[in-house]
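Protein in question passed on here:
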Amino acid sequence: MAAIYWLRNDLRTIDNKALLAFCQNAKKGLIVYTLDPHFKNWGIHRQKFLLQSLYDLNSQFKIKNQEIIVTDKNIIEFIRNIQKHILITEFYCTKEYAFNECQQESFISKYCQDYQIKLNIIEQNTLFKLVDLPFEIAKMPDIYTQFRKKIELNCKIHLIHSDHLDFPAKINFECDGGLNLKDIDMTSSHPVFQFIGGESTAMNRLSDYFWQYRSILNYKETRNQMLELNDSSKFSPWINLGCLSVQFIFSELKKVESELGQNESTVWFYYELLWREYFKFLSLKYGSKIFNLSGIQNKSKKYFYNKAVFNQWRLGQTQDVFINAHMIELTSTGWMSNRGRQNVASYLIHHLHLPWTWGAQHFEQLLIDYDPDLNWGNWLYLSGQGTDPRDRIFDPIRQQQMYDPHYQYQNTWLSQKKHI
């Protein structure tokens, strides 16, 4: 008899309730990560960041005499192969919110019921649990401000506590396909920011931003700048793979406010965490609709389906050099600032009049911090076919004057164009 722990976007040991439950209850077990079926089509930087994160976690597991099996099979197929040799009695994983991920959970639930496997899907990738929300998901406010106010008045965040992990005995199992986590390139793909996947780097980054440099205290003033490491937290690549939990970040934020004082920046940072919650639960509410061109408004707009123009945008060859600089950074590194994402999305939608879903799909392929709820939710929001029907148009000339008046950002990335 044995248990399976299915890694998803929870690639960490600290504040990992699903891993803790697996360690506390299983006598024997194995840990598996199933590669996305589109993994080979991802941009190289997104691939690299994931593999670094798995390598780092696997290094920690090996100390405990466990290891990660990385397979290109889907999870049902993997369990079927395991059951030919081993009796599986328990299954552990972390809950997700996006449509395809929820479908996977439904398939797992049905399979476990059919084969009398105890299923443990543990909710831990948001600050708030579904049961604690002051509304049913179907009645969640569509407007962010209304959502935030209801949350702040009625919903309590449970601070984390640390637990010692005693891993179950490893089961040796040879898996066809997949990847061997060795000889992974553990360098950053970004020449300025140290984006190296894994919990170890994530914890160092959090410590630097909150404590060493205390940059959190200036977050509101610097968050829209684009060139310096500490302009913003840069936590998202690690958060979205689960190398760093939002509960842990919130706990550290409360410590900062206790020791260094609360100010507008610490409060604003918390509001940004609430934006993440908003998009997570909005994704759960609307399911596959957030991927539809007509959006949740189910209204049609006139788009130009011009692939040549799209490729100019994608490659940073538009008539606007500010937009081009952002797209070159994305192609070169898999990263772009939040301000940059708003600018290039607005440009694609409102200046080029291309389908917003084309932009969302391109971001999905390349971003090292890709998250379906946040990526598609933000694109939907900016398209005017989400929860805000207004057209949010960003003037790239005005944006450049505000956020890159001396052309430092543009010059940095336009000089890289010859290398991509």
Summary: The two ends are 51 Å apart (CA to CA). The chain is about 50% helix and 5% strand.
